[in-house]
Automatic annotation (TrEMBL):
The keyword Zinc does not apply. SUPFAM superfamilies: TPR-like. PROSITE patterns: PROKAR_LIPOPROTEIN (PS51257), TPR (PS50005). Signal peptide: none annotated. NCBIfam families: type_IV_pilW (TIGR02521). One of its GO terms (molecular function) is mannosyltransferase activity. TPR repeats lie at residues 48-81, 82-115. One of its GO terms (biological process) is protein O-linked glycosylation via mannose. Keywords: TPR repeat. This is Type IV pilus biogenesis/stability protein PilW.
């Protein structure tokens, strides 16, 4: 009996030893498998990027058919490659395939929310096709990346899009753009227009003067300045803007507008 008991105990210990070895081996194998998967994924991404870079070159040369072939190869290697989807979206825009462009833009951002360039351009695209409110979501995605160095442009574009649909949040986005770049001319001009429409004439004057301080006047901005100063009853200043508009841009529609205002 003692001999049998000893044999049974030894058998149990042997079984546990084998189980432990198998268990640990499985753990190691699993870890190695994860590394292999990660390595394989990186390899696919690298190969997809090679074809995407080639496609970008062809795109610049307006060789669209060849660019498309390279991008199709890239996406066959890695369908979730963000940059490949992004460049394909840009190509679809060139080919005026808006529905396809929207699909590729959406996939580029979904597969890599930190692809801020894709998110920004998707926002611009949506604004252009009449989806102004939806576009803001993608401008927000673009600026959420702290490494994105063109956040002021995303804020400005968001503001411009919301102005088109008379959203009050437009002013907030334009001011955010100016907080990042106080010399951002389109934002200054849009805020001057917005404040004039709101009849906040002193604020409108402040923005248009900041605008003129960093750029040469154009017909639209001169006409706006003329209207602002006229609303403020600053006749001499208004007349100076009118005179400049008529002298430097006599054939413009803005010049025609101020001529008619005196008739």
């Amino acid at each position: 009996m003692p001999k049998n008991t000893y044999s049974f105990s030894a058998l149990i210990r042997a079984f546990l030893s084998v189980f432990l070895i198998v268990f640990l081996t499985a753990c190691v194998s699993s870890g190695g498998g994860s590394k292999q998967i990660t390595k394989a994924k990186k390899s696919r991404a690298d190969r997809a990027m090679v074809h995407t870079k080639l496609a970008q070159g062809y795109l610049k040369q307006e060789q669209y058919a060849t660019a498309k072939q390279q991008l199709e190869r890239a996406l066959s290697i890695d369908p979730d490659h963000s940059d490949s989807n992004y460049v394909m979206a840009l190509l679809m825009l060139k080919l005026e395939q808006n529905r396809q462009a929207e699909r590729y833009f959406a996939r580029a951002v979904k597969t890599d929310p930190e692809n801020s360039a894709a998110a920004h351009d998707f926002g611009v695209f949506l604004c252009q096709i009449g989806k102004e409110r939806e576009s803001v979501e993608y401008f927000e995605i673009a600026v959420s990346n702290p490494l994105f160095d063109k956040a002021q442009l995303s804020y400005m574009r968001a503001g411009e899009c919301l102005l088109k649909v008379k959203e009050v949040a437009a002013e907030q986005y334009l001011k955010k753009a100016l907080s990042l770049n106080p010399r951002l001319r389109p934002a200054l001009y849009q805020l001057a227009k917005l404040k004039f429409e709101e009849q906040s004439y002193m604020s409108a004057r402040a923005y248009i003067e900041r605008y003129f301080a960093i750029t040469n006047p154009q017909p639209g901005s001169l006409l706006l300045a003329y209207k602002i100063e006229s609303a403020l009853d600053a006749r001499d200043v208004a007349e100076s803007y009118r005179s400049k508009l008529l002298t430097e841009f006599p054939g413009s529609k803005e010049a025609s507008t101020v001529r008619q205002s005196r008739d």
